[in-house]
Structures are given as C-alpha cells and as structure tokens.
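User:
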Amino acid sequence: MGLPDFDQKISLSEPQVHSNLYLMDSLPDAIVQYVLSHMNNARDVAVCNCVSKRWKDSMPFIRSLYFPRNSFDNHVGSDNSDEIIWRMVSSIEKLEELVVYSPFSGAGLSSWLSIAGSSLRHLELRMDNLTEQQGYREIPSKLDCINAAKNLESLKLWGVLMTQSPNWDGFQNLQNLEIVGARLEDPALSVLLHACPNLTNLLLLGCEGVRSISIDLPHLEQCKLDFYGVGNCTFSMNSPKIKVLEVQGCSWIRVRETKNLRSLSIANNAGRVYMVDFVKLVALEFLSIRGVQWCWDAICSMLQWASEVKHLYMKVEFTGDFEALQPFPEIDLADFFNSHPKLQKFDIHGAMFAALCQKSSLKNVDKGFVIPCLEEVVVTVRSPLNAEQKMSTLESFLKYGKNLKTMVIKILQMKSNHSSADDFFDEICRFRYVNRKIVRIE
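Assistant: Predicted structure:
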C-alpha cells in the first residue's frame, strides 16, 4: 500500500481504538512523545498522525524519517511525492535523520533541506540518476542540494552520476561517507573528498570511471574502495590513522602511512596488480591478496612487509610481469613460516599451495623447525597434478604445526577426467580419516 495522505483521517476498528486509548491515555505526554519519537517509517508516522490529536501533537518530536522504495506506489492524491515529504519534514521540529529510497527530484530535495538541513545529522538518498545523459544536468542538481545540510555526520548515496564536480562548500562534521553504485570522473571525486576533510570512514562501492584516486585524509580509519572496469586504476593514500583498508580494481597502489594498519585487502578481479608500495606493516593482523594475476615482485613485497601478520588469505591464480600468465615459482615452506612466525590462520588457494608443494621444498628441513602459532589451515585444491608432493605438504602442516587445531581441505572443480583425480581424492580421504580430529573435507 502507498503512503496515506499526511492529513487524511483514517478509521480503526473498535478493538484497536479501545486498545490504543487504554494504553496511551494512561501514559504521561512525555512518555507518549518518547515512544512515538522512535518511529521512522513514513507510513507509520502518517498513520499515527491521524489517530488522535494527542498523537498528532507528538509528531514534531520525531527524529528520523524513512521513505521506502514503494512509499508512493499506490498514492491517489493530488499532491506529488515531493510535496508529501515536504509536509512531513516541515512538521518536525528537529529532524536528525532522513532516508529517502522513493523517487524524488532535485527541487524536492532542495525544499526539504532548506527546512531541515541545519538539524540533519544523517542523510541517505537513492539518487537514481545513473541513466541520465551526460549532457543533461538537473537544476538544481541533487548533489548540489546536499550542500544545505552543513552539519551532516553521515552521508550515504546510492546510484550517483558524478561527472561534474559538486558545488559543496565543505562538510566539517562529516565522518562517514558511503557511495554505492556510481559513475565518477576523477576531478569530481577529488572535489568531493576535499570537501570532507574529517572523514573517519569512506566507502566507494561499485564505482566506474575512476582512473586515478588520491586520498589525503588525516583522520581516516576505515576505507573500502571497489572500482570496476578494466582494473587499471592508480591509487595512493596518505592517512596516518588508517586501520582497515580494502582496495579492489587497482593496478598501482601506494600507501605510505601504515603504522596503525591492522587489516588490508587488495584484489583485482579484472586486471593485473603491477606495483604495491607500502612500508613495513608492523600492526597488520589480517592480509588478503586476490586476483587473476599479480607481478611476482608485488607478491614478494607484500609477504615481506606483512611478516607480523596473523591471518593470511591468498587467492592469486598466476604471476608474470606482462601478458603471459606464469605459475608461482617454488616457495620453501620452512623459509615461508620462519618469515611469518605469528601466523595463526593460513588460507591458501591453488597457485600458492602448488608453490609450497615443489619437490625440493621439504628437503633438508632443519630438525628443530616448527610452525609455532599456526592454528588453522584452509587449503583449496583444484588439480591432481603433483599429488604426492601435495600430500607431503599437507602432512607437513600436521607434523610441524604443533598447535594446529583445524585443517580444512576444499576440493573445487578438479580439472581432470583421468583416474589420477580419483586416486588423489582417495588419498585425501584416507588422510582425513587418519587425522579426523583435525582434518575435514569440504
């Protein structure tokens, strides 16, 4: 059902009326106002406004309004959605949060924010202007209208066309900025970030059109960037307080301030990772590197910088500096774990596991070698090639991992119709049976 007219009288059944009167009449006005002020769904607010004068008088104390996508689907009144939202917003004394998923115009947004802009702390809008033509610019533009909400602390935008720079003076109080689904141009994104100098959380998810992004935000603690396209973006960051960083779709990555970085995820599902430039990641606890192809120097550098990591996730299919896809070179298992003494959980997929399974990897292992902190290993296997070496590596995790509690072996899309695949699977099943307290197969 659509949103009822804000001033429309509605009828309730007799039991409902008696129940409401009994409950609400027994409460002081302050309690009624407190209870009703916690509503936020616009339809509920409109309905309560029509129940009684006492309830209607409590409506100005509401702090939050939420308009779902279907708020006006069955609306039959003469007023359009912009006007109805304006009446509801104007009836509230101090609106702190406004969430609008239903369609609206730039003029409508401008009228709402001219009333509530000074009190708003949280604003979330489904912009729905991605399909607009490049040459078309709504006046006033929805992005420019947001400038009226000077005191925002959190801003979330969905479906944004940002090919031109927003006309923003600056949001000094804004700490959280989230943009999901956007078409961006580099200059416009640069202006947007410059207008939000005190961000602590930044999320750009499902964004296209970005070729280069530089983030210089001194208070930023969490950042998630997800760019789709050919995967060749350039990214640089100078944020000394950054703790959590996720980057997807970049080929060249430079982050110079990392002393507080605890969680790092780098992925490129469409392109290659050519260069990463960090300093020693002394506080890093979690590292995830994913993608089809990484240059081997980039992989080696990341593993070297992340020597203190506790949880490592690796899902890179190939290496190679240019077009040719190449397998990982041999990695000595003992050297690897000696270089990562704090590693507690190791999640390896395909290429990395194969690199640890080369024939000479487990030769001449020092008698005193142990993997001191490893508690969980998750191995993904997709090929029966070198099955003997792979089984030897699995056994080595148990032999040297004195604190190992769990080993999960995932067998995905075994690429062979030959009997060797069945033999390899049988070997894994036997291995699991002998070590069933620790090993399981998924």
